[in-house]
Design goal:
Strand order of the largest sheet: 1-2-3-4-5
Radius of gyration: 64 Å
Number of helices: 10
Shape: rod-shaped
Structural class: alpha/beta
Distance between the termini: 11 Å
Strand content: 5-15%
Helix content: over 70%
Order of helices and strands: HHHHEEEHHEHHEHH
Number of strands: 5
Largest sheet: 5 strands, mixed
């Protein structure tokens, strides 16, 4: 009920009282004094009405103040409850965020440690295998350098021997001495070039024949026999100007017969099917004899090629042995390449597995980063909401004015 309605009600009650008083006056004192009594009662009623209105206004003012105070108290209570709720929610949210951050940091730490350990393990395996391969390669290169040094030494010795051919012809007049010299020179050449496991001196064949040396080479070359021959007497007589022309021609024919006999003997004795190679080597310890044959006796050289007997001198035998060493090296290299290829294939498989696991790890790390970013965005939004709540004004000016008018 509004104040205006309340005043209207009071006025109606006063008017009703006035009517009742008039009725009583008409009953008690009819006549000339009625007007005066009415005037007096009217004045009393007006005064009474004024006092009553004053009381009513005072009561309304007190009630309005009480209502305003109660509304202010209620608003303060609501604000206090909202503030308490906000602080509790903020504390709980901060606590949850801290727990999530700790858990996420622990997971990232564990994942990082696991990744580091795995990468160290893989790196160690790769480094170990590469180190083993490098060590084997370095060992091979070291052996090559050593062998080249031995070849250089042997070449120097052969050069010295070549310059002393004339004096050797005088010293080696005996056949046994010449044979021993040829075998010693052959042995020195072979030992300086080839490893022990790839040749055999005084090797006995299945037919009972003994070769001065047998080279053990891989297929398709096969095992090659070497026999040293030194036909010095006929050569010396053939080249000595002290003898007559006929004697020198006779010595030349004997020289050719001796060489042919050596070629046929070597072809018959040291070429065996399915046991040796399809050829053999005849070693001539004198460079001069080798040069004489290739310069003036082409038919002998062709006969040797036909019987598959290869004529060699110290220099050419060095080339043959160097080639044999290259063949052995290539064979060993092929074997090592096979092993290296196997290790490389295994390494490729390990690396593919490592790449797959690393991609999975990268995906997990990217997902974790995305989750952290989303959590950060959510936390930023929640903080913004709290900031807006703290800055919000709960009562607008119009609402306050409406409260004041009630």
């Amino acid at each position: 009920m509004s104040t205006q309605h309340f005043i209207y009600l009071i006025t109606a009650l006063l008017a009703l009282n006035l009517i009742l008083l008039l009725v009583q006056l008409f009953r008690r004192a009819p006549g000339a004094g009625l007007v005066e009594q009415l005037a007096q009662h009217k004045l009393e009623l007006v005064q009474q009405q004024g006092r009553f209105q004053q009381q009513v206004l005072e009561q309304l003012h007190n009630q309005r103040q009480q209502l305003q105070q109660q509304q202010q108290d209620n608003v303060l209570q609501v604000l206090q409850k909202i503030t308490d709720t906000q602080q509790a929610a903020r504390f709980e949210l901060s606590k949850n965020l801290q727990q999530q951050a700790i858990m996420l940091a622990e997971q990232v730490k564990q994942l990082t440690q696991s990744t580091d350990l795995r990468l160290k393990d893989i790196a160690g395996q790769v480094e170990r295998r590469l180190s083993e391969g490098f060590e084997k390669t370095n060992q091979t290169f070291t052996d090559i350098v050593k062998r080249l040094a031995l070849i250089d030494d042997a070449q120097k010795k052969i050069t010295e021997l070549s310059t002393n051919v004339v004096s050797l012809q005088e010293v080696l007049a005996d056949k046994r001495s010449r044979g021993a010299f040829g075998e010693v020179q052959l042995t020195a050449l072979i030992r300086n070039v080839l490893p022990e496991q790839h040749f055999s001196l005084q090797h006995t064949l299945s037919n009972g024949r003994i070769a001065d040396c047998m080279l053990f080479l891989p297929k398709p070359s096969g095992d090659i026999a070497i026999d040293a021959k030194f036909p010095l007497e006929s050569y010396k007589k053939m080249t000595d100007p002290q003898y007559g022309t006929e004697e020198r021609k006779q010595a030349q024919r004997q020289f050719k017969l001796d060489i042919k006999k050596h070629i046929n003997d070597i072809a018959d004795k040291y070429i065996i099917a399915n046991e040796t190679a399809d050829g053999a080597i005849m070693f001539l310890p004198a460079e001069a004899i080798f040069a004489e044959l290739h310069a003036y006796h082409a038919d002998i050289v062709e006969e040797a090629y036909r019987r598959r007997v290869w004529l060699t001198s110290p220099t050419t035998l060095m080339a043959v042995l160097t080639t044999a060493r290259s063949v052995l090296k290539d064979d060993a290299t092929r074997r090592q390449v096979h092993l290296i290829q196997e290790h490389l294939v295994k390494l490729a498989v390990d690396f593919d597995r490592f790449r797959g696991r690393f991609d999975n790890l990268a995906k997990h790390i990217d997902q974790a980063a995305t989750d952290v970013k989303q959590i950060h965005t959510s936390a930023h939004k929640i903080s913004s909401r709290f900031s807006q709540i703290e800055k919000a004004e709960w009562l607008e000016d119009d609402d306050r004015a409406s409260i004041d008018t009630q």
